[in-house]
From TrEMBL:
It holds the Pfam family Bac_luciferase. It comes from the Bacteria. Keywords: Monooxygenase, Oxidoreductase. It comes from Virgisporangium aliadipatigenens. Residues 30-319 form the Luciferase-like domain. This is Luciferase-like domain-containing protein. One of its GO terms (molecular function) is oxidoreductase activity, acting on paired donors, with incorporation or reduction of molecular oxygen. GO terms for cellular component: cytosol.
Amino acid sequence: MKFSAFNPFPVYGTEADPARWPVPPRYSAPGLAGDGLARAWELCDLADELGFDYVSVAEHHYHPRQMTPNPLLMAAALSQRLRSAGVAVLGVDLPLTNPLRTAEELAVLDVLTGGRLLVGLFRGAPNEFLAYGTDPYRSREAYEEALDLVRAAWTEPEPFAWIGRHHEYRTVAVWPRPVQQPHPPILVAGNTPATARYAARQRCRLGLSFVSAARAAALVAAYREEARAAGWEPTADDVLCRQFALVAPSDDEADGLVRRYGYGDLTAMRAVSDPRVSRELTRAFGGTAPSTVDVLPAGPMFVGSSATVTAQVRDFVTATGVGILDLAFNELNLPFAHARRSLELFGREVIARL
């Protein structure tokens, strides 16, 4: 079993409505962003000290609870801070980026981390397509082509041309080669059966996020079945799941914190302020863009005292076959002190028990 600490680099103390996307820049008061970054680095350093296997970052736009428009920028800084933990970029939204630039920067990151890089290459959440005017109707096809291009850029030994439907480059010769050969592990989001099976056909790792144990088990089963049909057998490390975790000295205190601080910011990540735009994006995703209600369990997956959370984690892993848990400790609108304590209790007591 491996553990990753997800850090969204949130701003604390803003008066912005966390259930809104995008959040108007007028709420970005002087000093707030710098304070949020300083506290985020503190949690990253603590996770490394506590023995987490990875510290992870992700791409999101236009919201103060996730200040990572370019996760590779944060990952580069992490590569120079972390002494033992790997860096997990979970992930880059390929339809929003230049895939060759992404391939180059990730290759450099693999060198900077000494081969401790895990890469998530994602299509992106529906609201993210509004950030740069990306066409959501073409995003699936463009994403799959970009994934193939990134992998080719990492593995082809000679310069080559790429003439595709969505990307065209006359000369591709990415430097440097990644430390990990043939390339760093690639993780693909698989919160639907179709995407889970796609990950298996691509021989990529499977990434799940905020799903119930029953749903995770079904998706992992579909992934493993498709992998066997493709002639390979995934290991436990090939399946990662992101969940919330909140550890407190007692079950009662943990439950009280959940009731008080709730899910506001996650709802914002999955929602768009204009409902007409939200409906249009869902249609563009072929009706497969899950709502928060569809995906999330009734409450955070791992909540309680360290003993309770240990049992919850053990039961979840046994039921699903997930090998890496990517845990969000500071994304529940929690005040920083509670988020830090939760991370520390998990590292010192839950990981030790497991």
